[in-house]
Amino acid sequence: MKNHEKKDPFLFPTITPLPFQTPKGTCTKSVKIAIDTGYRHIDGAYIYQNEHEVGEAIREKIAEGKVRREDIFYCGKLWATKHDPEMVRPTLEKTLSVLQLDYVDLYIIEIPMAFKPGDEIYPKDENGKWLYHKSNLCATWEALEACKDAGLVKSLGVSNFNRRQLELILNKPGLKHKPVSNQVQFDRRWEGRGEWRSRGEIPIFYLTGECWSRSWKILWSLTHISS
């Protein structure tokens, strides 16, 4: 399976299964089959609510001798209700506890906007309106940098960021660790292709997949931010 080299000194597998909306109780088996098939990059998230199953699959395959921990590239995500700096490390530590792993290979801010802090994944008011929250992406990023320095994560990235939001972090005074990736949904309606290509600094690696909650096919891309 093809690997892609990041600025950090290791490789990550380009193709990944996405355990989003996997039927409850089936994720462990699905991930084990994926590993047996040759997949090594697993794209998970707190809001998928199945990281315990993913972790079980990884541990079983390690116990079988099929893979070593360093063979698996696990990507986790910081959800929008956990952007406050004091919530970042406890949230990552909870993910590690659920996975029963010592570290994740990549940890990304899942979306640039924030919801009301708390354990409710999709907070809404009594009228069904989203409860948004003012956050500071640079402060969130600094908390993530501290997690990397503590050895809880190998690399940091973002997801669904536009150019302005990405440059906000890249131009942050005192930046210690650059985002190595920007994971975005891509479909034929997206109009930003020319802008990214014209910059000539972000090669995009596309993965064809089916988004189960929608009726059209999409391409998930993991974009590498060059230095």
Automatic annotation (TrEMBL):
Record-level Gene Ontology MF annotations: oxidoreductase activity
Keyword Cell membrane: no
Domain of life of the native organism: Eukaryota
Keywords from the named record: NADP, Oxidoreductase
PROSITE patterns documented for this protein: ALDOKETO_REDUCTASE_1, ALDOKETO_REDUCTASE_2
Domain NADP-dependent oxidoreductase: 29-186
Family that this chain belongs to: Belongs to the aldo/keto reductase family.
Protein name per the record: 3-oxo-5-beta-steroid 4-dehydrogenase-like
Organism: Canis lupus dingo
